[in-house]
């Protein structure tokens, strides 16, 4: 099990951002992590990536506890946050070299070439990140996330703001990466989940309201579309 979350909670003052959630994510597949804004998705991802501590409960990544083994967790995770953090004054190759140095990668040049090829950045590799289109910036962010070949990838809205061709290219890349990794994908785009996710978790008001394979979730809801299931489970009429 690459990710095991047990009874995880995070409280800000009186507000429970997540409330006793438990789930697991398997290697070799993409887990779609869905929920309305403010449901607790980003909070969960920030705990898993050791950006913020939980209030209670446990989370383990590749067997390492996020509280007691946070450096090991970081070594096993690639993270692309919703607001893609790039040093815009750096060139593409330079930025990847910087990531390689942080991770103390052997033969960084070899890995830079591999990642540029994998993420389709060949034509843009000698440009500054600030000069790239949004689609290529997302690819550069993904290239940074996968640079150290992590076992787990956590992607927050990776195709947000991309044109349809770019979306298809990034989805294909995520599908390929998932063959050898555990991928958690947070998105508001239901077609994206239907296109690339095997497992679906829906979180609402800090609690998990669905955790199933996509096919079983549909069966349980009379083969409704994922969009309709999502509305049913997270709409205001649900208490």
UniProtKB/TrEMBL annotation:
Family statement: Belongs to the ABC transporter superfamily.
Residues covered by the ABC transporter domain: 3-230
Swiss-Prot/TrEMBL keywords: ATP-binding, Nucleotide-binding, Transport
Full protein name: ABC-2 type transport system ATP-binding protein
Species in which this protein is naturally found: Daejeonella rubra
InterPro entries, A to Z: AAA+_ATPase, ABC_transporter-like_ATP-bd, P-loop_NTPase
MF terms in GO: ATP binding; ATP hydrolysis activity
Tree of life domain: Bacteria
